[in-house]
Design brief:
binds FE2/S2 (inorganic) cluster, single chain, 4-stranded mixed β-sheet, 4 strands, alpha+beta, globular, Glutaredoxin, 5 helices
Length: 140
């Protein structure tokens, strides 16, 4: 299991896995949700979150940059419709390579990247963002 903080004091890349009303539920078929989470956790610290308010993209996974990646300009990358093992493997390989700010995003993952709607990012629209979504997009 990866550690939260490396010996050098840097924070590693982290993976946020949505598991709530849609992501990780029977509504998303053809995915072993437990295996997906376990596979991601083999490679980086994983945090399970409640609904991120983008259920149409289920299963949603957000990769947060390491401290080095953030310093290099990396920002959280949101992946949607991650519903097959190959996509999960591509994300884990990218995380192992350094993730946001440190490793170039493989072209194949462009198919899954999306920009969360403003409601999910900052919660200033008619539909308030979930607390989980707001936490993922803080700028501090
Ligand atoms: S359950 Fe994942 S975005 Fe709603």
């Amino acid at each position: 299991m990866p550690t939260e903080v490396s010996r050098g004091g840097s924070v590693p890349c982290r993976v946020v896995v949505c598991r709530d009303c849609c992501c990780g539920s029977a509504k998303v078929t053809g995915v072993d949700h437990g295996e997906q989470t376990a596979r991601l956790a083999d490679n980086a610290p994983v945090r399970i979150t409640g609904c991120l308010d983008v259920c149409e993209q289920a299963n949603v996974i957000v990769v947060q940059p390491s401290s080095a990646g953030r310093a290099a300009g990396g920002r959280p990358v949101w992946f949607g419709l991650v519903n097959d093992p190959a996509a999960t493997e591509d994300i884990t390989a990218w995380v192992r390579a350094g993730g946001p700010g440190l490793a170039e995003l493989p072209d194949i993952l462009d198919l899954y990247v999306f920009t969360p709607p403003r409601r999910a990012r900052v919660g200033r629209s008619v539909t308030p963002a979930t607390p989980a979504a707001r936490q993922l997009t803080r700028r501090d």
